[in-house]
């Protein structure tokens, strides 16, 4: 099979690798499309290694494809099933083996492109907002960096939960497209970063950008509010006025999925399978695809991922 490989210098290369073989509790999937994420670039820089049990030099955290081989101990799954999954690595290849309990069914009518951008973004959004922050109808939620892959998922999950969503988007040409993410019966207000304070206070602030000033948003919280730190591409170190956190009796929550145990990931997959995939099937959630590239166009795909002005997900089609 062909696979994108991170070489010793941190560069991406397209190489041939042996086809993986499914173990007893695994399924081999022929990948039709794969999502790109900031973690792929971080892994290439040596900052975010793959967890044990996953390919150490093949990036890719989310895939969509067809089942080609079913392990001896796997039940309820057949060759030809259309599936998608959040994986620990190895997704940017023509084939991958995945533990069966991480797989999600692909709703009828969903394209490979959309499915490839669903698992990481919406698993992250649901876990952070619903499971950890306990978002409720009527909450005011600020999502920073709301035009990206995870940002567009956060906006939709918050709105579908009945929250009033304020999406912070630097590029004004994307504001109308972010507004259109609002599920039926909900609204999304879009502002530039400098306008966030005018819509405060917030019950939940979703931090997807990072940078030195990001934790100043504690000043925008309502009493007992929460800041969810999910992305830090703009910088990994930020000062915090702890007295502001104390006065607000606020919570600061950091989260990531890749480094969790298999049991935790399987539990999250089960939650997404029963609670989030049905919303996608009903059309209440959608996956905006910014751009799609063939596997041999991997260099352009990663360049687009690293560049500014994206709306939604960057994917590769195999």
UniProtKB/TrEMBL annotation:
InterPro entries: ADH-like_N, ER, GroES-like_sf, NAD(P)-bd_dom_sf. SUPFAM superfamilies: GroES-like, NAD(P)-binding Rossmann-fold domains. SMART domains: PKS_ER (SM00829). The keyword Signal does not apply. Residues 8-316 form the Enoyl reductase (ER) domain. One of its GO terms (molecular function) is NADPH binding. It comes from Streptomyces gilvosporeus. Keywords: NADP, Oxidoreductase. This is Zinc-binding alcohol dehydrogenase.
